[in-house]
Design goal:
By secondary structure, the chain is α/β, with parallel strands linked by helices. It has three domains: 4-171, GMP Synthetase, Chain A, domain 3; 180-278, Beta-Lactamase (2-Layer Sandwich), CATH 3.30.450; 294-493, 3-Layer(aba) Sandwich (Rossmann fold), CATH 3.40.50.300. The protein is 42% helix and 20% strand. It contains 24 helices and 17 strands. The chain has an eight-stranded mixed β-sheet, with helices on both faces. Strands 6-5-4-9-8-7 form a six-stranded antiparallel β-sheet. It has a three-stranded mixed β-sheet with strand order 1-2-3. Helix 18 (414-421) runs antiparallel to helix 19. The longest helix is centred in the middle third of the chain and has 15 residues, at 315-329. The termini are far apart.
């Protein structure tokens, strides 16, 4: 046990260092255990302490003692605490769930209150005013509080038992654990560097590299194999949802392997599965071979940034890299709408609120309609798909928000035509004006296989809105932009230019660039290859 002077030193020390480092310093965990827990934390949106306990690196009581020393506030083990219903009734249920707090006991006019953040004085002040009692905070880990609040409903009138809270905590561990067979396939997929793995009946497991597939040397999968893989990959509730809807798009984390985006669908009375591995760490622009000037656009206070290209060519990764730049450098409120959530963003300088379609809001349209009341500075839309979403995105970009989104389009200029043509003829003039006013940057990208076989590199088409470009858009002369600027200007640089530069630098093969070029004749001229 620490003496009073040692406790004070410990508290002061904790305030200057990260929790993980403090745990290592106090020899409660090892550096290796901390690194493993941090890697897991990049995959799941949970506090570090909860992960360390879940992985068996630290005992609950030791962690509670650590928290007590860190905050200079007593801790409480909810697994060993019974709470009478009369105590629970002192705090409205909606307040408990809003603030993540739990009343534990009363001594005179003082209420002992279990809290995740015992130094949240605004919450304490609000509750003291609401219930008319002085509050004495007690520190508890996130997973304990979550398990306790999960048990409480409007009809719950029997008090809480520590054993029930502990059982709830064990039950809430819903992360799927995969079998050795599918685990080997996923491990091979991660090692290969492929963008996707495809499992479909009648063919061996298949890897996708850029726009080409490569089958693994194995026997063809049967419908029974694919169904068994789907059952192993999906938690029970996800499997039941798939059976009902016949298709499912989701992101899942497996402690053994990492985080994946998956799509399950039916074809010819069997199940097919498309799997994409999501890296633990958000890649920087340099890691993605993207230019540094993109960061300047991410730091703009308002406007519309669109990232387009075919499916599987890294649009979401580029968008999330820009979100991370904003999160790391601006103090603002970021709200995302994603289907599903891929990368998990931690709160850095900004607050990042990630909403998943179907789980946190019913549709993109519904989520967008309420976003103006959520004090957003930056709005991130996983994909613009319909007229209503485009209209709201344009309105947001014109009214002081930075809006980032992806869409499917053949080129950076084609996005303008797609947006305008989505609306009826009598609306198109006003939409042209809105696009001209709000569009800031349009990117179109392709992933191209490297000549050395070490993964892929991005080819980028750049279209920057300017006074001259906005006039073209207002006048409905979008078709003239490419022909007038084909050889490259400050506002526009074509995909063919990017592909030719990659070829001339020896990064890609000529034919790989030719397949993806928008204008093969121009590509030949730029590369100097005649035939």
């Amino acid at each position: 046990m620490l003496g009073s002077s040692e406790k004070k030193t410990a508290r002061n020390g904790f305030s200057k260092e990260l929790m993980g480092e403090a745990l290592v310093k106090n020899k409660l965990i090892t550096k290796d255990q901390l690194q493993k827990a941090l890697k897991r934390r990049a995959q799941v949106d949970l506090p570090l302490g909860s992960i360390l306990i879940d992985m068996g690196f630290i005992a609950i009581d030791d962690f509670l003692n650590f928290l007590s020393q860190k905050y200079g506030i007593p801790s409480i083990n909810l697994f060993k605490t019974d709470i009478d219903q009369k105590i629970l009734d002192l705090v409205p249920l909606e307040k408990m769930k809003q603030y993540n707090v739990l009343p534990v006991s009363v001594e005179g006019n003082t209420l002992k209150l279990a809290m995740i953040s015992p130094q949240d004085f605004m919450t304490i002040s609000d509750l003291e005013f609401t219930i008319g009692k002085k509050i004495k905070p007690l520190i508890v880990p996130f997973f304990m509080m979550e398990a306790a609040l999960h048990l409480l409903t409007d009809s719950f009138k029997d008090g809480l038992r520590g054993s029930a809270i502990e059982k709830s905590a064990m039950h809430d561990k819903t992360e799927p654990h995969i079998s050795a067979k599918i685990g080997k396939l996923l491990a091979y997929f991660i090692e290969s560097g492929a963008s996707d793995m495809l499992l479909t009946a009648g063919a061996p497991p298949t890897l996708k590299f850029s726009s080409e597939i490569k089958r693994i040397s194995s026997i063809s999968l049967t419908p029974q194999d694919c169904e068994e893989y789907a059952k192993q990959l999906l938690p029970k509730e996800h499997w039941e949802k798939f059976l009902l809807q016949k298709e499912l798009d989701t992101s899942l984390t497996y402690p053994e392997m990492g985080r994946f985006r998956m799509n399950f669908y039916r074809q010819r009375q069997s199940i097919s599965i498309s799997i994409r591995h999501i890296k633990d760490k958000l890649p920087a622009l340099k890691d993605l071979s993207l230019p540094d000037w993109l960061a300047d656009f991410a730091m703009k206070p308002q406007g519309l940034i669109l990232i387009s290209g075919p499916a599987g060519h890294g649009k979401s990764t580029t968008m999330n890299a820009l979100v991370d730049i904003i999160n790391s450098n601006r103090r603002c409120n970021i709200i995302t709408l994603e289907d599903p959530i891929e990368y998990l963003h931690k709160h850095k300088k900004s607050n990042v609120n990630q909403r998943e379609i179907g789980r946190d809001t019913a549709t993109f349209e519904q989520g967008l309609r309420s976003i103006f009341r959520q004090a957003a500075n930056v709005i991130v839309i996983g994909e613009l798909r319909d007229k209503e979403s485009f209209e709201i995105a344009l309105r947001a970009a014109r009214t002081g928000h930075l809006v980032l989104s992806t869409m499917n389009a053949a080129s950076a200029t084609a996005v303008i035509r797609i947006i305008i043509n989505m609306f009826q003829a009598h609306q198109q003039n006003i939409i042209q004006m809105m696009v001209a006013d709000s569009l800031m940057l349009s990117l179109n990208q392709r992933l191209v296989r490297r000549r050395d076989g070490k993964g892929v590199v991005v080819a980028l088409e750049r279209f920057i809105n300017s006074y001259r470009i906005s006039n073209f858009i207002r006048e409905g002369k979008v078709h003239q932009i490419r022909s007038m600027m084909q050889t490259g200007t400050e506002e526009f640089s074509s995909l063919d230019t990017s592909l030719s530069e990659l070829y001339k630098s020896g990064t890609i093969d000529f034919n790989d660039g030719m397949i993806l070029s928008a204008n093969q004749q121009l590509y030949r001229e730029l590369t100097g290859v005649k035939s």
